[in-house]
User: What shape does this take?
Amino acid sequence: MASESPSMTKTDKNLWSAIVSEALAYLKYNAYAHRALEEGHPEVAQVFQEVAGAETIHGMNHLRVSGGLDTTTVNLRTVTEGESKEYSTMYPKMIQDALDEGRQDAADSFALAMDRERHHLEVFTNALDLLEAKTAAIAAAGQPVVATSNEIPAAAPVATPGSALQVETDGMTMADYVSAATEIDRERWRVARLGRLREVVFGAQDGLLSTVALVTGVAVAVENQTTVLVAGLAAALPGMLSMATGAFLGSRAEQDVQRAEIAREAQELEDNPAEELAELVVLYQREGKTYQEARHLADEIAEDKDLWLRTLVEKELGISPDETSSPMKDALTMGVAFILAAIIPIMPHFFMEGGAAISVSIAAALTGLFILGVGKGRLVQRSPLLQGLEILTIGAISAGIGFGLGALIPRLIDLG
Assistant: This one.
């Protein structure tokens, strides 16, 4: 839909409202028709579909009167820009919002639509490339190019990556563009998930280290299976709550700080746009552009206030306006990682006693730490072996300290 401007009359606005209403009615009536067919009422479905067709005609008439129809080239450019925005910006944001609110059904619906928008974007862009190539060829041959606002394009063949129909612009094809858009969205959320690796590693490592040190010390000191289990579980459960709460509060505080910084930047943009424009020019110059290039880019970006703020936030503050962190998810990740890891050194004491339980508990904890280090190394693309040995060494020292304290403290008490 065209964005409203102060120059639009009431009738113009009413026309666009009517277009939206007719389009919504078309969707609803077709959906109602499908439901009627599912329930075994084809006669009712036919009524819904007939009325839906009439709504389409009304909407097309409103669109024609509003001036929303242009030449086929302009129409293709308009829908390409719209589909690109929906695919790269609108639906990814909607999916994340749905997931944050626990609406997996809505997220799945948005994801399906986003996948089809990618296909629509590819089809429309290929059609535009072919039409522009055709127009250029006709103009080169000296033939008149006919373009009217009522032009109805024939179905254009769909170009597939690598086919002869695919038109390249400066070496970049539509397949490159779509692949890049997909990769950008995928990478952003992949990095966000990797950021949660901190909670996994920290939670699991703390759960293993603190628990193995505690149960080892208690087992050496009292040599009573029940006491060891009570001590281990009493430490693990509050530890889980403490770690989860700390992760939640820390993540929330970081989120609040970022939101405050973005709000401050938005206020500065409102109060002193000239200074913010100058800052954008300087930022682009520091990236290696000339003053003229930087000023041209800054002026173009400043035409869209939302894009202007987004660019300043990303380049000046180093903050992404798209929130990928979730305090609740961070807390759950930390708490689950801690309790699962803490159970490992406690488990042997359910089935064994004395020195055997202590040995198996320490061995299990050290093995868990080594596996944790190897997994961390693979994810961050560092030597898995070295990462595993690093955490293993820390765990061995912790277990040794726990063993030593367990043996030393009873003697000190006896001496007292």
Remarks:
- Confidence is low (pLDDT under 50) at residues 146-170.
- The chain has two domains: 10-146+169-190, 196-409.
- The two ends are 84 Å apart (CA to CA).
